[in-house]
Records
---
Amino acid sequence: MAAPIPGEVTGFIGGYLYGALVGIVLSTIGLTLGSWSAFTLSKVFGRPFVEKFVKKETIKRYDYLLKRRKGAFLVFLLFLIPGFPKDYLCYILGLGPMDTKEFLIISTAGRFSGTVLLTLGGTYIRNHQYYSFFVLLGIAIVIVLLSMAYRDKLERLFYRWHHHR
């Protein structure tokens, strides 16, 4: 069970409909509530529930985050990576020792920069600021491509950091 409407879409639409400030606030509230819901459902119903929505291989791939409490910084970094399956991460994290307060702080802060960029993009289109939109889009594309190109390396690096603590 992933988000019915991806956060990337709602961020952009929020900026288009409501402008930067209100769009950022509403998108952040929506993403936080959705993330918290996935995390809480996972906490309440456990691994059998999560395995209905997240492949066992995916859970196993990030299982190292569940073994220790010291993975908070790494989780924050994963939330920063564009295109990373954050919905699945919320479910997986609910299986571990992370408490709700820590999860909410990390997931909200980690998603915030992406929310701001997407909302600004929608705002630029709304205001017919096409040059600004395309500059922002270009920057976003470079970030996404770099993240995609180095995703596996970043994940291996995070895994090594986590096991050497």
---
Amino acid sequence: MDNRINVVLPPENRESIFQAVRNVKNGLPFLVKLSKAERDALLKIDDGRKPFVEKSIELATRNAELDPGLGLLADAPKDVDLYSFLFTLENDLNQLLESVRDTKQLAGAEAFKVARLVYDKAKMNVKLGIPGSQAIVDELGKLFKQKTQPMKAVEVK
């Protein structure tokens, strides 16, 4: 059995990581949560359309007859700047999240493999007539056969 991950993360490191996540969330108090319908209804900007947006704002700034009014033009550069920052942040966080998910999956797979070996060994011990083995097989069997429930994300406060 390959044991690719063997890590003990001290409690103080865990707390500092959770604090860093809280700091990121606190640094972005304006973040919103959209429903799927709201998300689907919004116009989409991407790397291909960003130059269009930037050029439109630039041209409207220099040509008053292009200003859409209502103060929209004055706020647009702030939206583009925020979009650019959040785009970069999202990429960085996605890379981190991918590594977190992969490491979590590997750690879980390794632990589950050991648990399966223990369960198989307990079943072998039953066949060998080792006292108390059946109780272990019964207990582990109930847990092994349970359907797994998806884990809910824990909110970091």
---
Amino acid sequence: MIARRVAGLVILWVGALLAPQHYGWTHYVSAQHRFSAFYPPGWHLLTPDVGVLQVVNFPDSERVGGTIIPPAGAIITVGPTGYPGKTVNDVIVASLVGADGPPILDQTILTDGLGPDGCPALHEVQTYLNLGSATHPVLERDTTYYCQVHGRIFTVNLEYFRGNRAAPMLESLARTVATTLRIEK
């Protein structure tokens, strides 16, 4: 009887180590680009079956034109980078073309290794993009996490409008999504 309890506790302990740390999060797997990530409950797939993960925090009933983000909305996109470059720094330089000024944040976040297929480090870059005009700016806040594993570079990108009251929570969710990213060889 004691042996069964000990074995059960060991199984629970190992399962807790291997399971995602966020109960209720959805696991997304891209067979096309050979990566996986988890996204939070209440978020909705924007473009299923395209090989990248795109989720929004607003329902279909609030969508206009497919990807226009409402004032309190946000979108998280996970996938291979669409920019040229062999290093994360090359990709960051290419991705900053068109940003309104230099990054407002540029830092490297060391992770706990996350296993052989997870990101050993995340490079976080935050920028603004003006979707309006010079006289009537409409600033979109972009936070991008860059990850290089097995020689492949992936990004986790969060987009929302400046002034969004949920910004700290959105930033935290995006960082958590980035820490769940796994890239196959």
